[in-house]
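Title: Prediction job returns without error message
Component: structure pipeline
Severity: low
Priority: P3
Assignee: unassigned

Description:
Job completed but the reporter wants confirmation the result is attached to the right record. Sequence as submitted:
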Amino acid sequence: MSLGQSLDLPSLDRVDTLAQELALLQDKGKRRIAILGSRHVPVVAIHLIELVARSLVQEGHSLITSGSQGVNAAVIRGVLEVDPSQLTVLLPQSLDRQAVEIRDLLERVLHLVEKPEQDELPLPIASSLCNQEIISRCDQLICLAFHDSETLLASARTAEDMGKVVSLLYFD
């Protein structure tokens, strides 16, 4: 490269986002972090998600998630091992509408918010509404998804539009 050539610099909006993310990393304050993700997760990733959830709570942050299998269940298990009082779980519908496999885990959650008024909605719509509420309650969103996870990707875009710091990680 000659001295006369310019460097490709990132766009200003990306620089602002990067600056915001770096400031959050340096901020030692406690944050309310939402972690949302796919129901279908590779087994190795489950252990990593549990470790991340435990670590964030040990650092003093509180976590908020929803109540499905996969990523959300891993977050719940990780936090319950460390400090159950630092976890809030918002369900898209009532507890009895949740999968049988996860109900035992959900019954151990201290701060469980059910939405029985959404029981008659299709699950994708109820989940989208639930994710919006979760995002409104957090400072930061960590989203673990596949490239075709429409509801999760829409939630990540919503969080970005609201000015939240979003970390979007893909399994594929």
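Comment from assignee: result matches the submitted record. The first strand starts at residue 32 and ends at 37.
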